[in-house]
Each structure stands twice: as structure tokens, then as C-alpha cells.
Write a structure and sequence with these properties.
153 residues; two-stranded antiparallel sheet; mainly alpha; 3% strand
Length: 153
């Protein structure tokens, strides 16, 4: 299936996902370092990584939705793409909840409960990424002109 959203002939969604994945993952690492050292700078870096990661995730998800809408109905790719998108939406919702909790309750530093939410969200991101990898591995799902959607259910 040929991507509907491209830049210079390349699909945009796969290019964008590296930013939120990296930012949200390192937010968890910086928060862990904050817990271990007590240094508030690490909490601030984690907070801003979540901020940028959520914005990047929303942008990547927008282009992913455009691509998903172009996948033919009744295909395995469409079903996997739906679960991939829903899992990523849940990941973003959890990180947004942690971000709001940090602003409202904890003064931008992660408390243990918000850190646990972030770790759970990171696990969800791993699952969603695995589903995205499944889409790439399906014959003809990602590609240029002439690519076709993969296999019926």
C-alpha cells in the first residue's frame, strides 16, 4: 500500500515516530535518575521530554491515521493498523495524564504513581511498536508505487 502522506517520496509517519518514542522513553529514564539522585534538574528534563514527546506523538499519529485510512477494508493490515493506532492513542493518553498530574499535583516532578503510569505507557509503546513492525513486515503494506495491502483477514 502506498503511503498517502509523503515528503520527498518517502512516507512521513515512519519518519516521525522516532521522536516521540525517543523522548518519552528518555523521560522515564530521566525520572528514574531523579528518584535515584534527588536532583530536580532530571525531573524537569523528564517533564519537558514528555511535553515534546506528546506533541510529536500527536503529529506522528495524524500522519499514521492518514495512512491507515488508505488501507483497504477487510485486510489484515487494516486490522493490525487499527490496534497499532489505538495502542498508541492509549500510550499518549497515559503520558498526558502523567503530564497533567505533574503540573497540577507535583510541580512538574514525577511522583511514584505517575512514574508507574509512565512505565506502563512505555510498555504499551513497545506493544504498539511491535504492531507497527508487523505492518512493515507484511508483504506490500509499506512501499512505493504499486504496493498493495496485505492478505485478507
Amino acid at each position: 500500500m502506498e503511503s498517502k502522506a509523503k515528503a520527498l517520496g518517502h512516507p512521513i509517519h515512519p519518519m516521525l515516530i522516532v521522536f516521540p518514542l525517543g523522548l518519552l522513553s528518555t523521560a522515564v529514564i530521566f525520572d528514574l535518575v531523579h528518584f535515584l539522585t534527588g536532583d530536580p534538574v532530571f525531573a524537569q528534563v523528564g517533564f519537558w521530554n514528555i511535553t515534546a514527546g506528546v506533541v510529536g506523538g500527536l503529529l506522528a499519529g495524524t500522519f499514521g491515521l492518514v495512512d491507515w485510512l488508505g488501507v483497504p477494508k477487510g485486510t489484515r493490515a487494516r486490522r493490525i493498523g487499527l490496534w497499532h493506532g489505538l495502542a498508541n492513542a492509549a500510550v499518549l493518553a497515559l503520558f498526558i495524564a502523567a503530564w497533567i498530574g505533574r503540573v497540577v499535583v507535583d510541580g512538574r516532578a514525577a511522583s511514584v504513581p505517575w512514574f508507574v503510569v509512565q512505565v506502563v505507557a512505555l510498555g504499551g509503546a513497545a506493544y504498539a511498536g511491535w504492531l507497527g513492525g508487523e505492518l512493515v513486515a507484511l508483504p506490500g503494506v509499506v512501499g512505493g508505487p504499486g504496493a498493495r495491502a496485505a492478505l485478507p483477514r
